[in-house]
Design a protein that fits this description.
- The protein is 39% helix and 18% strand.
- The chain is of the alpha/beta class.
- It has 2 domains: 8-172, Rossmann fold; 195-320, Rossmann fold (3-Layer(aba) Sandwich), CATH 3.40.50.920.
- The protein has a 7-stranded mixed β-sheet with strand order 2-1-3-4-6-5-10, with helices on both faces. It has a 5-stranded mixed β-sheet with strand order 7-9-8-11-12, sandwiched between helices.
- Helix 8 (152-161) links the parallel strand 5 and strand 6.
- The relative contact order is 0.13.
């Protein structure tokens, strides 16, 4: 019996969604001659040196100038090219907000933003380097698609899916902390369709990004106590999977959202907005507080601010009584 083989892109991704994005770009480069890559001093962060080696004439290094990167990308899109911007999430989302709004979203340009080092993944760099408001900013932009992959498999296939999205995309990626596999290797990616990773009719946990792994751990812990917690991987924040959320609200006693983002405006806010209008439902939110996080290692910071399976378990128990 022969040894199983691992796809080269998966091995090169090293359980980091930021690198899976760069690997997917290589596949896109082969399929789409109009694809071009722009870097805001992120050649190593998103693993795009192989792209540069393969297609040097389809690459632009803009440097630490995110506003320029977005402006250039928008201009390239007007000529029919398909720009992919590689950047740090805290800088591309905040520093370039005007350009993203006016040059990309308002003009409905086909620009894909690969935003790495999101959340508190750059914990040791402090609050200036934390991206905890980016989902609120991006999902408020008309025409913008917002995707938060949970692992490298999902990041790779979500990036490939941008080939079929005729408009701007914000793809929120992790940092250098490994992200454990939570989806099946054979699983593809369907935009706007949440994936159910655990069944359950007592309570529902809706999570995105790095919090999906913790939601699964929470579900397993609750199962041991006789509580069946459904887990939805809400990889697409916009367009939101309304059907999956409303079904969960109808079939379980309440909903817990979990995200590495501030309470305001992220996944929890999107779910609450829907339920407030369509089906009022008891909710709890596991998210970052309304404050700038302290400086520290990413794992320790996540523990400090309750980005944990234990916090999800407690939130679920408060809903089932």
């Amino acid at each position: 019996m022969g040894a199983s083989t691992t796809a080269p892109w998966r091995e090169a991704s090293a359980n980091q969604t930021r690198l899976a994005f760069g690997q997917a770009l290589l596949a896109i480069g082969e399929r789409e001659s109009r694809a071009v890559v722009l870097s805001a001093d992120t050649q190593d962060l998103l693993g795009i040196r192989p792209w540069i080696a393969n297609w040097p004439d389809r690459f632009i290094e803009v440097g630490i100038a995110e506003q320029n990167a977005i402006g250039i990308a928008s201009g390239l899109a007007t000529t029919g090219l398909h720009p992919y911007v590689c950047a740090y999430a805290p800088f591309i989302a905040a520093r370039s907000m005007e350009q993203i709004r006016n040059d990309v979203a308002y003009a409905n340009q086909r620009v894909v933003i690969g935003a790495a080092a999101s959340g508190i993944s750059l914990g040791v760099a402090g609050g200036t380097h934390h991206a905890l408001e980016d989902l609120a900013l991006m999902r408020s932009m008309p025409n913008m698609t917002v995707i938060v992959p949970a692992d490298v498999n999902e990041a790779y296939h979500a990036t490939l899916a941008t080939l079929d999205i005729d408009g701007p995309v914000y793809l929120r990626l992790g940092g250098r902390t490994p992200e454990a596999p939570v989806t099946e290797d054979s699983a593809g990616f369907t935009l706007g369709r949440a994936s159910r990773l655990r069944p359950g009719n007592d309570v529902t946990v809706i999570a995105c990004g790095a919090m999906v792994e913790l939601a699964l751990k929470a579900s397993d812990a609750l199962k041991a106590e006789g509580i069946d917690a459904r887990v939805l991987n809400m990889h697409t924040i916009k367009p939101l999977d309304r059907e999956a959320i409303l079904q969960a609200a109808a079939e379980t006693s309440g909903i817990v959202t979990a995200e590495e983002h501030r309470f305001a405006g992220g996944l929890g806010g999107a779910v609450a907005e829907l339920l407030a209008v369509e089906r009022p439902t008891p909710m709890r939110m596991v998210a970052m507080p309304d404050e700038f996080a302290v400086v520290g290692p990413t794992v320790r910071l996540r523990e400090k601010y309750g980005m944990s399976a234990e916090a999800i378990v407690a939130a679920c128990k408060s809903l089932v009584g």
